[in-house]
Amino acid sequence: MISKQLAGEKAVEFIKADMTIGLGTGSTVYWTIHRLGKMVKNGLQIRAIPTSKQTESLAKELGIPMTSFSEVSQLDLTIDGADEIDTHFNLIKGGGGALLREKLVAAASKRFIIAADDSNLVHTLGKFPLPVEVVPFAWEVTAQRIASLNCKPVLRMNNKKPYITDNGNFILDCSFEKIENPLDLSEKLKLIPGVVETGLFIDMADLIIVGSKNDIRLINKN
Ligand SMILES: O=C(CO)[C@H](O)[C@H](O)COP(=O)(O)O
């Protein structure tokens, strides 16, 4: 069994009846969603809010009942993946392009669980290029302003065209190499006009489930 699958499937153990669950995006939570689909088929009652159109269609296919922020304002639990996790529980997310909805859903959740494998654990964030969601208008100027923070922003492409997020925006993948102060960087990025959201998730995760070749580790905050 691959490590992402181990971690993703382990995460369902934290789902209880009648919970409202945030469903993340990516190849790790794919396994969570599949397991959850089976649990729902076996009678578990939950409702879910997806963090992307991709997750929404998978969850619908598996018969997982959906809700939305027009019906609920708080979720019990969100399960998602991460591209990098540092020793202070800070994350880089957005490799799959869903960072804005992922952050909104995580911020509305009482508990935020990350399922990942040991390749995602790092001492300092930044080797993985930081995804930054920007509005398409004047994105070139936004990219120049971001570059002045000492990185190389690259416009994410899809079939030779700019990649478009579920919110109709672009993504700039920003290579910083080392992000020594994630909070400071996050604040600076959010001050740039045109930046909608960044893939820096600072001190939001409560529990990390780390799958490796043959076992699973749980890392609790504190
Ligand atoms: O942030 C994300 C999507 O926007 C994903 O959680 C992140 O990219 C990790 O993905 P995977 O589970 O496929 O490694």
TrEMBL record:
GO terms for molecular function: ribose-5-phosphate isomerase activity. The keyword Flavoprotein does not apply. It comes from the Bacteria. InterPro entries: NagB/RpiA_transferase-like, Ribose5P_isomerase_typA_subgr, Ribose5P_isomerase_type_A. The active site is at residue 102. One of its GO terms (cellular component) is cytosol. Belongs to the ribose 5-phosphate isomerase family. This is Ribose-5-phosphate isomerase A. The lineage of its organism: Bacteria, Bacillati, Bacillota, Bacilli, Bacillales. The gene is rpiA.
